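pinning this so it doesn't scroll away 📌
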Amino acid sequence: MGVVGLLYVGAVLFINGMMLLGKIDPRAAGIFNLFVGALQVITPTVLIILGGNDPLTILGASGIFLFGFTYLYVGIGLLGGFDTTGVGYFSLFVAIMALGFSFANFRLLNDKPFGVIWLYWSFLWLLFFLLLGLKHGHLTAYTGWVTAIEGWVTAAIPSFFLLTGYWQRWNQNLLATLLAVFGVVVFGGLWVLMRKRGELPSRAGPRGGETIAAH
């Protein structure tokens, strides 16, 4: 059930990335954030109820709430035109907690690929904090690209392969390594490329993220 929700997390991240890049109207994106936010709150609630008192089930489900609350927060903010500071600082909380969930996946759940994916999410939500909480508007385009890419790499593609059974057939250590290398190379390379093109000025520009939310 959680895997199905992950598929639509990929969709909402892609849409929000396109919104940050100016391709989608914020209010239009806000509606879909509400859909996915509701799904990501209902899903872990059901998983916890059905899972009884199993600690690992509760642990896994608890992480989903972080994203569900984020998307609801963003959707309401976009539709209402509210200031982004609150969702920005909530994103800092998510970024920190994602490090804990990464550790849990590596050590408790023995799921190294998702241990790496949680690091991806920690990095992305840190960008949301810098953009929305601290108003570093010069990060808008970079954050948009990272958001859109992570929508596919950390959610849509893994969920599809999990649903079809192919994910489990691959060597998990190799998969985790490939994900880690991909993240460093692509996001590091994207940063360098955008700096060379002047798309990442050293100081924040006029786009301060006041009404644009990204997750």
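📌 and the second one:
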Amino acid sequence: MAAPVREIARAVQLVEAGGTVVVLDSGEYQDFRVDKSLSVIAEGVHAEVLGTSGFYEGAIYVDAGAAGVVALRGLSVRGTGAGASKGVKVSSGRVRIERCTISGFGSRPDGAPTAGITVYRGTVTVVDTVLRDNRAAIEASAQAGEVTRVSLERCRLHGDGGNNTNGIQVNASTRMAVSDSLVTDYGIGVYLRGYTGSPRAMLTLTGTTVANNRIGVYSDKDAQVVIARSTVTLNDSGLVTLNGGVIYTAGDNAVLGNFTTDIGAGTVYAKPDLSI
């Protein structure tokens, strides 16, 4: 094992591609950038990465290239209000975020857009992770001619109740699968919006609860949502469609207890064995 260094950022610079950075001690660490395949692992310690610098970059910024494979495990990523506007920003690579907590990337006085996780290209998997008190928990989009793929498994997304907040935001040319998760206390829990002439934004919710939001699930501009084995409840509006957006909800969902029943003309109730 190489001699320990004080900062994760320095260890990331020193480790060879394909290597592993192991965080040995609890404490606060500076933000860092990953530009190659590697793993950063914090097991049994509280390693808090502070978003202290960078305007649009992330406290953890991943740009590992199309073939890069990056794993982030056991880290706590916290916004400071004046530093990085993203918790984790992914510009390229295959990235796995596991057992992390990402918080505090909320509205800023300078108006910079903020989010817990932002994906611009690549394939990202988020597992057993808590995202709380961020303006957007996770937002995903794609570059021209590309498709971004994201999956969330067993995640907890907690907002602060603000009207202009989104738990999940999916833009055109992006495909996202969410399973066994919770999305609560946002302006919009799940928001999809496509663009004319672009591949549609698509999302599937399975075994997930969307509750206590202003709008539970909102599909706009030719976007498509499929919901199965999930609960949409206690939202001001449960399911909303607009501008050709579509929501397919299988017969094994519980869409009830919401405070308005205007679900939009694009919502389709279907049998559990629906094939689309």
